[in-house]
């Protein structure tokens, strides 16, 4: 049977995020945690493959104990198993350390449940926002990577091949690749499903599997957590909102208003800049 | 359909439903708690004051861990005139220990309360709407939800879906509430620095105070409230839906005018509105309580009109009715009988409790909310009372006897004559004394 791993991260709901004006950091306290938006699209694609071809879907996340809730949500949607990689020693990881631990986790998942055919990641996270973790995992596992996937066209199990469409800045790329591959999902890839009632019931009692540093025999402790993270945050700041001067054109009728507006525009440097005559 | 069967399904994770689920789960029965919100409390609002006694019956010393705002040590009643106010207040340090009541916010409280039911073993099914009751002839045998494969079966369904109770309506135990059986409340949560709140309300640390407001409700039957939370204030008004319809006034217009009242505006000054919400409150009282049980079902809390509007008590009636429904479900489980004959014990238990007794005592209050009287009681009399007191306290050389006459005349005119004043007085006295 196909084995698909989906990497998810629990992130603060960005719709409710505020920035502490004193320290310039995100105020995470009291902000509800959600499954990173793009990751749900990765999970949905994995579940569609499961529905069509049959597959084991393992969801993994590195995070604090509270991330169990995120895994339960994935189980309610139809994932078979959720693995939480959690240990104080993993804390403070940057993308390098994160992808190292996740790659090890995927290897351990292969040892436990069989070889992995596909890995799904989100395009990026709502909080870290780098988009580096997916490619990082692929490199470490020496696997092909298909980033920014907007359409999963087909899977041919006989030929061990997938065809996807990648959404690039200057166009769309249709790519054929051999399994195993790592795919990073865009939000236009699909529409994540709502859990069924039996799914919710299963998730309500589900206890995710937890792996700590002790569960990895080949772990290099210098590569994890803060110690394994060469990223240095030298400064963070909130960009000043741009000052915009607003003038209100208040005239008797539309024609007068438009004329007034044009006259005022021509009194500025704007027409010259834009090359109007 | 889910393969799994439950002993009991509880619909609605408000105070009533959660109390029922908690009680049942603790006894080791299989109970599912279904809530349409993203999590319990997500969209729930109330004033609100939470009371110790009835929750303590369920979870001893719950206040040591529950998310509560401030312990109420002072309760004020303000009768508002247009730009004057008659005030009564009572403060007693004994309300602090053991605490009598607290202010709270439902978003936090309901979530915490439901987590206790989950820990006791209730199976949470959230973000799920129950769309109808499943029936076998007239026995209720389960619920249909809005999820795929969404039918769920159980021996008993406890209906705790709040004031609108679509499920209660579907059982025909009650109809759409009449406009004079419900009030519409709107509320704002206004944030202010903790210290500012304490200074403005004369409080220290976690001490809190409540203010009930009468008068200035745009000539309608309604009450306002202003409660202190840790670093927010809850300000709201509730007005009879029948009056809103007749006067064609929007509830937020009433709230806006209250916010501009000189006594209120200085208390909320500089605050930022964090939240705005609206909700119905059952006002029908004793005579609106529907049948409480049938074959395979029981109904509790707001869904059964269990609100004591005079004392702004609702959550505690909800908790008690939920607990009693839960206990009845456990007894029915032991007996293996889920028919009306057994579940009607819930009705008996409610009758023996303060829920029934308090609602019965205030049975007559509902008749005071009728059009005509309501305008006098909630608008004209408060205004005249303020004017009368102004006249009494003004030292202007007019003999006190004349002043007293003038004051009485003001009240009489507001009531519509001597007889009406007497009638309102007697009616009011009877309503309050049961
Ligand atoms: C400027 C900056 C400063 C930072 N400072 C700190 C700091 O001081 N301390 C600190 O702890 N963190 C810090 N971080 C965050 C940390 O680097 C990242 O959160 C983490 O390494 C993952 O990277 P990302 O969130 O950018 O993920 P992305 O690379 O954007 O994620 C892509 C995909 O990878 C997968 N993925 C990512 N993370 C996980 C995970 N944990 N588990 C499972 N799957 C995952 C998901 O599928 C996700 O959609 C900082 C980030 C930045 C950009
Ligand atoms: C403005 C205002 C101020 C108040 N002030 C106070 C006060 O100070 N003190 C006090 O004790 N009481 C107060 N009350 C009354 C109190 O809020 C209610 O009496 C109490 O909440 C009733 O509890 P309940 O569990 O019966 O209903 P609710 O609290 O309404 O809970 C019902 C639950 O059922 C859920 N639900 C509904 N339909 C469905 C469905 N079909 N499927 C799934 N779930 C569903 C809802 O989402 C909700 O969570 C106030 C009420 C209001 C509106």
Automatic annotation (TrEMBL), chain B:
Organism: Alicyclobacillus ferrooxydans
Cofactors, names only: FAD
PANTHER family: ELECTRON TRANSFER FLAVOPROTEIN-QUINONE OXIDOREDUCTASE YDIS-RELATED
Keyword presence, Flavoprotein: yes
Name the record gives this protein: Nitrogen fixation protein FixC
InterPro entries for the chain: FAD/NAD-bd_sf, FixC-like, FixC-like_C
An example Gene Ontology molecular-function term: oxidoreductase activity
Domain FixC-like C-terminal: 375-433
SUPFAM superfamilies: FAD/NAD(P)-binding domain
Keywords: FAD, Flavoprotein, Oxidoreductase
Recorded family membership: Belongs to the ETF-QO/FixC family.
């Amino acid at each position: 049977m196909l084995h698909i791993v989906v990497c998810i991260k629990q992130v603060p709901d960005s719709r409710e995020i505020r920035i502490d004006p004193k320290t310039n950091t995100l105020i995470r306290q009291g902000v509800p945690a959600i499954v990173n938006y793009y990751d749900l699209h990765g999970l949905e694609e994995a579940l569609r493959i499961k529905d069509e071809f049959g597959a084991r879907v393992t969801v993994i996340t590195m995070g604090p104990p509270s991330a169990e809730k995120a895994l339960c949500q994935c189980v309610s949607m139809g994932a078979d198993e959720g693995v939480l990689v959690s240990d104080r020693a993993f804390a403070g990881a940057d993308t390098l350390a994160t992808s190292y631990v996740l790659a090890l986790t995927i290897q351990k998942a292969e040892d436990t449940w069989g070889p992995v055919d596909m890995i799904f990641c989100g395009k990026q996270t709502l909080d870290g926002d780098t988009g580096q973790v997916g490619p990082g995992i692929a490199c470490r596992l020496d696997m092909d990577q298909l980033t920014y996937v907007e359409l999963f066209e087909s899977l041919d199990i006989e030929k061990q091949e997938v065809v996807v469409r990648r959404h690039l800045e200057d166009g769309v790329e249709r790519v054929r690749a051999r399994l195993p591959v790592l795919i990073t999902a865009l939000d236009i890839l699909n529409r994540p499903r709502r859990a069924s009632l039996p799914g919710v019931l299963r998730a309500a009692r589900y206890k995710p599997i937890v792996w700590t540093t002790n569960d990895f025999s080949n772990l290099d402790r210098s590569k994890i957590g803060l110690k394994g993270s060469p990223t240095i945050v030298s400064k963070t700041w909130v960009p000043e909102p741009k000052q915009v001067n607003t003038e209100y054109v208040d005239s008797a009728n539309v024609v007068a208003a438009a004329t007034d507006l044009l006259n005022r525009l021509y009194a500025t440097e704007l027409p010259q800049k834009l090359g109007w005559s | 359909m889910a393969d799994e069967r439950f002993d009991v399904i509880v619909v609605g994770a408000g105070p009533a439903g959660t109390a029922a689920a908690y009680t049942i789960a603790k006894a080791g029965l299989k109970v599912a708690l279904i809530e349409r919100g993203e999590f319990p409390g997500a969209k729930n609002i109330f004033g609100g004051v939470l009371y110790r006694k009835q929750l303590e019956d369920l979870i001893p010393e719950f206040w040591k861990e529950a998310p509560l705002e401030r312990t109420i040590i002072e309760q004020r009643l303000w009768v508002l005139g247009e730009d004057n106010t008659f005030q009564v207040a009572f403060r007693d340090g004994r309300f602090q220990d053991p605490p009598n009541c607290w202010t709270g916010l439902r978003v936090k409280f309901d979530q915490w309360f439901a987590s206790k039911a989950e820990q006791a073993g209730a199976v949470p099914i959230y973000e799920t709407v129950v769309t109808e009751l499943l029936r076998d002839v007239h026995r209720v045998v389960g619920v249909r939800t809005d999820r795929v494969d969404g039918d769920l079966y159980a021996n008993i369904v406890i209906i705790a879906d709040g004031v609108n109770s679509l499920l209660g309506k579907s059982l025909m135990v009650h109809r759409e509430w009449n406009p004079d059986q419900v009030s519409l409340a709107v509320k704002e949560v206004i944030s202010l620095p903790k210290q500012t709140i304490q200074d403005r309300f004369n409080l220290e640390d976690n001490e809190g105070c409540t203010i009930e407001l009468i008068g200035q409700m745009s000539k309608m039957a309604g009450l306002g409230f202003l409660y202190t939370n840790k670093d927010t204030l809850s300000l709201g008004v509730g007005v009879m839906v029948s009056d809103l319809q007749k006067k064609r006034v929007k509830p937020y217009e009433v709230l806006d005018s209250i916010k501009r009242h000189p006594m209120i505006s200085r208390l909320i000054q500089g605050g930022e509105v964090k939240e705005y919400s609206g909700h119905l409150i059952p006002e029908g009282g004793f005579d609106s309580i529907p049948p409480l049980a049938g074959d395979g079902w029981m109904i509790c809390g707001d869904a059964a009109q269990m609100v004591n509007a005079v004392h702004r008590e609702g959550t505690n009636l909800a908790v008690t009715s939920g607990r009693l429904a839960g206990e009845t479900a456990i007894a029915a489980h032991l007996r293996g009988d889920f028919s009306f004959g057994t579940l009607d014990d819930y009705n008996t238990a409610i009758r023996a409790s303060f829920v029934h007794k308090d609602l019965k005592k205030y049975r007559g209050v509902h008749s005071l909310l009728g059009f005509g009287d309501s305008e006098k009681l909630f608008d004209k009399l408060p205004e005249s009372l303020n004017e009368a007191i102004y006249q009494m306290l003004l030292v202007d050389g007019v003999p006190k006897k004349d002043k007293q006459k003038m004051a009485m005349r003001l009240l009489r005119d507001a009531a519509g004559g001597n007889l009406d004043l007497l009638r309102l007085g007697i009616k009011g006295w009877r309503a309050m004394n049961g």
